[in-house]
Structure formats: structure tokens, C-alpha cells
């Protein structure tokens, strides 16, 4: 199964989370981590530019990469609306290395959980390692499936450009042994099924992920729960901040 944001799923992401939207305080968190910096930043899984565009406005020298051409097209349109020039690359992270280039690589909002297998995840981490400069920093958000209930259905309806789009999201499977969840998402326009996609999200234990990062060569790491917000008692997001040493 390949996770892919197609036409309608990308459109819905952009409609519900336009550039500048903060999820649980992540925009302020990334600003505080990155500003002020001199070097280049890579946002892996840039999506519609939700964080990329505000960071670019703060004069961060940032490159965005995403394997979904549909998402890249939306991000490009969002840049044009703001009269901004960005650098966007359409490529799968497993095939992208830019040797010793970036001061920071950031992977916000569960993009890393979308890597379909552990082998692919390790390949991507090795690529990040090579693409970072010496002493460069990797920041990855991982989400935990705390709200997942197999068999539950959620339905949302959006009015976009005069069209009613209904999204039916079925939480299909949770695999406790291999640590992944699968959602089946269907998109209807005028009651006709127009797009359908399964999304597989892999999760990692905190210690397990620190060990994986160490095994690839990353060191001097810390992790932060829910962007430091102590009022949320559920562990939803864990952010790993590790160095290339
Ligand atoms: C949940 S969105 C996050 C977008 C953006 N980073 C944000 O914070 O709003 C995940 C993005 O990661 C991209 N993605 C997932 N797997 C990828 C891969 N293997 N290579 C490149 N991009 C990938 C998806 O296409 C999607 O645009």
C-alpha cells in the first residue's frame, strides 16, 4: 500500500489547514527552533506550505520537498498568492540526498509516520544524515495513535469552491505487533465516489526511535512532548531533536 495525497485529499488538507495554521502550537515551536538561523533548512513532506510559507516570510532559507505532485501544485499556488518565491522539489524522500547541505531538516506533522515501512524509514534517515551539514540538526514530529478506535467512522462535509465534498473516514485496522494503523478515506462529490485512499501510519516507541536515530549516527538528542504544552495530558506528538555528530 502506498500513501499518496491525491487531488481531493490535497485540496481538503489545504482547505482545513491553510498556510499559517498552527496545529497544537507547532508553528510557534518551529519558529522558536529555527529563528534566527543563517543556513539552509529542508522541510521534508512540505505539503501545501502550511508551515513552509510562514517560515519563508520570516526569511528562513527553506527548501520544501514532497512526493505528491498534487500537494506541490497547491503549495506553488499558495506561494504565488503571497507573491513569494520558494524552492519546491517533487520527489520521494527515499531517493533524495543533497550532500552536506542543510543546517536543519524538519519533518513536522506526522509526515514521517507516513513512510510505509521501517526499511524505508531507515533509508530516509540515512539520506537525511548525508544531506545535513556536520553538527546539523534533525527535527521530527511523530504522532501516537491515542485516539484510534478500529471500526469507528467519521464523516465531514466541506463546501469548497461551491462544491460540497463529503469525506468518509473509516479507522480500519490497528496492528499492535507491527505498530501501524490503517484508515480508509473516501471522497464524494454530489454523492458520487470521486477518490479513495488508504493511509497507513506507522508509530514508534520513544526509546525505540531514539535507538533508531542513534544507529543511523544521530546523537546528542532530546525529545519534547506536545511541543512543551503541559496542559495536554495525552501524549499526542513527540518531537525528536537530534544532531549529526
Ligand atoms: C500530513 S502532510 C504534512 C504537510 C506539512 N509538513 C504540514 O506540516 O502541514 C504529510 C506530507 O508528507 C508527504 N509525504 C509522505 N511521504 C512522503 C515521502 N516518502 N516522500 C516525500 N513526501 C512524502 C505527503 O505527500 C504530504 O504532503
How would you portray this structure in words?
The protein is of the alpha/beta class. It folds into two domains: 7-144 and 204-244, Vaccinia Virus protein VP39 (Rossmann fold, 3-Layer(aba) Sandwich), CATH 3.40.50; 153-201. Helices cover 26% and strands 37% of the residues. The chain has helices spanning 7-16, 26-34, 52-57, 69-81, 118-131, 206-216; strands at residues 40-44, 61-66, 87-90, 102-107, 132-143, 153-160, 163-175, 180-189, 192-202, 218-225, 237-244. The strands form two sheets. The protein has a seven-stranded mixed beta sheet with strand order 3-2-1-4-5-11-10, with helices on both faces. A four-stranded antiparallel beta sheet has the order 6-7-8-9, covered by helices on one side. The two termini are 35 Å apart.
